Amino acid sequence: MRTTVGIIGAGPAGLLLARLLHRAGIESVVLESRDRAYVERRQRAGILEQGTVDVLRAAGAGERMDREGLRHDGIELRFDRRRHRVDFPGLTGGRSVTVYAQTEVCKDLIALQLEEGGPLLFEAEALAVEGAEGDRPRIPFRYQGREDVLECEYAVGCDGFWGVARKAFPDGVSRVFERSYPYAWLGILADVAPSHDELVYARHERGFALLSMRSPAVSRLYLQVPAGTDAGQWGDEEIWDELERRLETDDDWRLERGPITQKSVTPMRSFVHEPMRHGRLFLAGDAAHIVPPTGAKGLNLAAGDVVTLARALVHERETGSPELLDTYSATCLRRVWQAERFSYDMTTLLHRAPDATPFDARLQLARLERIASSRAAETDLAEAYTGFPLA
Fold first, then answer.
1. Is pLDDT above 80 for 231?
2. Mean model confidence pLDDT for the chain
3. What angle in degrees, to the nearest 10, is found between the helix axes of 328-350 and 358-373?
4. N or C: which end of the chain has fewer CB within 10 A?
């Protein structure tokens, strides 16, 4: 099998790249190790930055998002039982974010790819990337009980943290930067209308809490818990009681409870692999970087990567110049490190470390007071949350 761009992974990065290339007239083949049902129900991110929303619309993948997604013009910070709203459009010149789950983005892009795009093979396991230093990389893969090879001009690893693409980088080329956090998120889905119309980020002496949503009828909420926590250790009423404590305010706001339909624990880590290119092999999304979920940056960073790569591939085809391909890694990493910085800042601002001292707690409160009282500090948060430029 031969194509121009071989894409490993049908998550949002691989699917959006395939869509952008199709719109530009560049052939691709997508290999996905899981079946379609798994990809379409895999719960991940739910916040789309303004730039990601704009890209999906321009790619012809925004119709259902515009119909069902929830535009949010701000977030609420809670601390010391007080509430402070951050007004995104007023601070950023009109930008906002949209609540639309990664599962729904993937469903939309899969439908478009199968209807209009190049081959998208589910249950096709990429085994390696070979010959990245040459003119035609090879991706051996297993599909329908037999082994085959995808030959391409460019190979792109959108296969996540545990995928095979990053393993094709020689040891002497790869540099890894990472941090693990001593806490995790216990997340729930509940069949109850959200108790607030925007996301609420709460700093509490017992730990962080987040009130989010998936739809007008489904709430998504999180609690900070110790790393390694088993979600099954928490009973439903225990979860609701703890959320109520951490989200409490001095006014008449109340947390609405409902049936919990799903529980999961998300570990917290930061990870960056440099460079994001080796020869004709490119990394995008979680294959190259992981951020803690506090800043809502994971899916949006993936979108930024593939927009940058698609532009570079189009530029090379139209001009013959590899200039943008040669600068792909440096261009993406500038944005990646800003997102890492923001995600780290949000995480340490709102979470209680196991060894936190009273001094640390007072510093957190001082940082939150600064955001609530300084337009400059508030603007910095709003600009980062609604998204850094995609390229």
1. yes
2. 96
3. 110
4. N
Q: Looking up tokens 């949000």, which residue turns up?
A: 346
Cα dist. 61→1, 111, 335 in Å?
A: 28, 10, 24
- CA 335 to chain CA centroid, Å, is 13
| Distance from chain centroid for Cα 214 | 15
**In the predicted structure, residue 39 carries a pLDDT above the cut 70:** yes
Task: Quote the DSSP letter at residue 130.
Answer: B
Cβ neighbours of residue 355 under 8 Å, at least 6 residues apart?
Answer: none
How much is the pLDDT for 41? 87
Full DSSP string of 308-358: HHHHHHHHHHHH---HHHHTHHHHHHHHHHHHHHHHHHHHHHHPPPTT--H
Rounded distance between C-alpha atoms, residue 243 and residue 248, angstroms: 8
- Active site members: 72, 201, 293, 297, 385
pLDDT 10s digits, 360-389: 999 999 999 999 999 999 999 999 999 988
What sign has the CA pseudo-torsion 99, 103, 104, 108? positive
Confidence (pTM): 0.95
> What would the two tokens of residue 144 be?
């329908």
Count other C-beta atoms under 10 Å from residue 173's C-beta.
Answer: 12
